[in-house]
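wait is this the right file?? whatever heres the structure
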């Protein structure tokens, strides 16, 4: 039903993964191809010790996750299994990561946050979640009462896990960063991207595109994925 792909930039990336694993999750009706700009930028980044990034993408078949809770749950279950598989690819390497960095666009950020409460989640397998134009506080549309209830339970889970329980692995290491496009995003009200009621300051924060250094203006819902200044 779903598929996992490893993005490679010709002439820059090695044929096999050997860096820090990053996993892109598209949003409502989104495509794995939307990760191309991010992949290009990551391919040019190299640490002083030679450390690089490996970008993986999930093909969710352009499903309408904004309208169906079951799709969010199904994608979350698949992504957890995908993370387990990704980490096995580094078993024989010099650097063996035990977690991945998640980048979620729009509803892909909700899928990313749902990973932690799925039965097949491996504690500590997600290091950071970076979301772009994700409606964290409430559903972007009033599709159903069930979607509203799902959001409420998800936010309560996160608030309890990362703000109250200081003993969990996530409260000690997980970071949630939410980036809003701003006034040009007419699909998602940027006020919905706020995560201050979900995580404490030690575990995350929210920002607008215009708050990022050297970004000249706001970005629309899709532009947040390819704007060179912002990516």
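ok assuming it is, sequence goes like this
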């Amino acid at each position: 039903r779903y598929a996992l792909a490893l993005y490679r930039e010709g002439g820059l990336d090695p044929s096999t993964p050997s860096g820090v694993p990053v996993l892109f999750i598209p949003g409502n009706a989104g495509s794995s191809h939307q990760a191309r700009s991010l992949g290009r930028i990551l391919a040019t980044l190299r640490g002083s010790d030679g450390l690089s990034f490996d970008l993986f993408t999930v093909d969710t078949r352009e499903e309408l996750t904004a309208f169906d809770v079951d799709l969010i749950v199904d994608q979350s279950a698949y992504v957890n299994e995908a993370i387990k598989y990704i980490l096995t690819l580094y078993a024989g390497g010099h650097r063996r990561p035990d977690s991945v960095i998640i980048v979620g666009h729009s509803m892909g950020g909700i899928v990313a946050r749902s990973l932690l409460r799925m039965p097949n989640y491996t504690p500590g397998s997600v290091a950071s979640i970076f979301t772009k134009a994700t409606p964290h506080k409430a559903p972007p549309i009033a599709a159903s009462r069930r979607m509203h209830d799902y959001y409420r339970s998800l936010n309560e889970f996160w608030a309890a896990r990362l703000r109250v329980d200081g003993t969990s692995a996530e409260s000690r290491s997980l970071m949630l960063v939410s980036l809003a496009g701003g006034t040009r995003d007419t699909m998602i009200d940027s006020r919905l991207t706020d995560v201050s009621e979900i995580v404490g300051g030690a575990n995350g924060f929210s920002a607008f595109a215009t708050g990022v250094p050297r970004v000249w203006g706001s970005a629309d819902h899709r532009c947040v994925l390819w704007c060179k200044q912002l990516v």
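The chain has a mean pLDDT of 89. so i think its the right one actually
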